[in-house]
């Protein structure tokens, strides 16, 4: 046991146990910004817009520094969503980019730059529309490593990353859409 602890300390990485940030029943621990499009039902967190097609972001009340977020997501049809990393500015896209009019799932969108600085690789072969997809986002300082369905698709270092902040989920304005999330956990990373 001592050897294992020494090895972990030598590697400089400590991980806390994963924390469920969605309880499967309601929005406890979250706050809505924008339209009231978020609900919880049968273990699933649902973001569903209506004919008004307004924006709606769902933010954790808790703030995070370095972490690995794991979640499953599902959608069908035209959808523009994403996961905000510690602030509104840095987002990992899910679905169709409103600006590019094509699927940019797992690519970083940097709002202050108004663009996607890089594109995730191989997503078209991994993404299962209409079925559950496994997403993993590791944010260690400004570096974001993203995996989809068990395969790494992005390794990006952001010049605009915040040190600490909430995690957010998005329903983009201008779309009549639905996205579902389940099994959302965050594992804190220390060093």
Automatic annotation (TrEMBL):
GO terms for molecular function: hydrolase activity. It comes from Haloferula rosea. InterPro entries: AL/BT2_dom. It holds the Pfam family 3keto-disac_hyd. Keywords: Signal. Transmembrane segments: none annotated. This is DUF1080 domain-containing protein. The keyword Disulfide bond does not apply. It comes from the Bacteria. Residues 19-186 form the 3-keto-alpha-glucoside-1,2-lyase/3-keto-2-hydroxy-glucal hydratase domain. The keyword Metal-binding does not apply. Residues 1-16 form the signal peptide.
